[in-house]
Amino acid sequence: MTPLSAHAASYLAAFGMPTFLAVLGACWGSFAATLSDRWPQGRSIVQPRSHCESCQRTLSARDLIPVLSYILARGRCRHCSVPVSRRYPLIEIASASIGLVSGLLLPTPDSFWVAVLGWQLLLLAILDAEHFWLPNRLVALLAASGLGVAALGGPERLLTALIGTAAGFTALFAIAYLYKRIRGRTGMGGGDPKLLGAIGAWVGWQPLPFILFIAAMLGISFAVYEAIRDKGITKSEAMLQRRLPLGTCLAVSTWGWHLFDMMNLTVISAFSAVS
Ligand SMILES: [Zn+2]
After folding, report:
1. pLDDT (tens digit, 9 = 90+) per residue, 218-262?
2. Phi, psi dihedral angles at 58 (to 5 degrees)
3. Which 3 state secondary structure label does DSSP give 184?
4. 27 alpha carbon to ligand 1 midpoint, in Å?
5. Chain centre distance of CA 63
6. Contacts for 66 with CB less than 8 Å, ≥ 6 apart
7. Measured in angstroms, how far is the CA atom of residue 132 from the centroid of ligand 1?
8. Cα 58 to middle of ligand 1, angstroms
9. Rounded distance from Cα 94 to ligand 1 centre (Å)
10. Residue 217: closest CA among 258, 249, 194, 260
11. Domain ranges of the chain
């Protein structure tokens, strides 16, 4: 290999994967934004094609480039100039960032799987935050993909993942059951124990208490923020609004933990390769 092509190869290795994951993430974000908008309303994902909600014109390919179309059209419909919801570019940016950050912080092929976890969690986080809904099918997909990735790592990793799945579900199910028995009302959604089970398939059983703790801290911080913001409203209004999407908090803490865990593993293996 000539020095120039060696240079190009290392350049590609360093920037190719993050760029690829960022672009893939932006496209997934576009799909996730549409899915999380239409599915809870019982609408089809494919029909009708994406259109302006105001003038009903069908959007063409140039209107559907993630983030870029929004910026070029200055956040408005090209035909009727009505402002487009910021929800779409924000979800696309979040999804692209998940890919970019995975690729930049993990210079190994594992970055792809970390991004896949992040993209699934993002969709679940949006649905739970907006609709308090964690669809069984998506949670099952999360569990299946986690077990699949664990199986690639060998029988020991698969066993840890299987224990993680059982432990995650059982622990949160038990907490929900006890809460209901003691307080006489439901404290969390039925999807939350299933989600923690699926998370266990990705991270194993060991970090589950930590992930749950961080999720609870995120939830409490959010509740405190809302309490301060909603000072003026009546107590019953506040009670209604202050239902916490635990699934969203779990999604955020899980991805953060998994990313740092994978970074540590990469550093450790790099050190042992050098020494
Ligand atoms: Zn329009």
Report:
1. 998 988 888 788 776 665 665 555 678 899 999 999 999 999 998
2. -70, 135
3. coil
4. 22
5. 25
6. 26, 27, 29, 30, 89, 92, 96
7. 30
8. 9
9. 25
10. 249
11. 1-105, 132-275
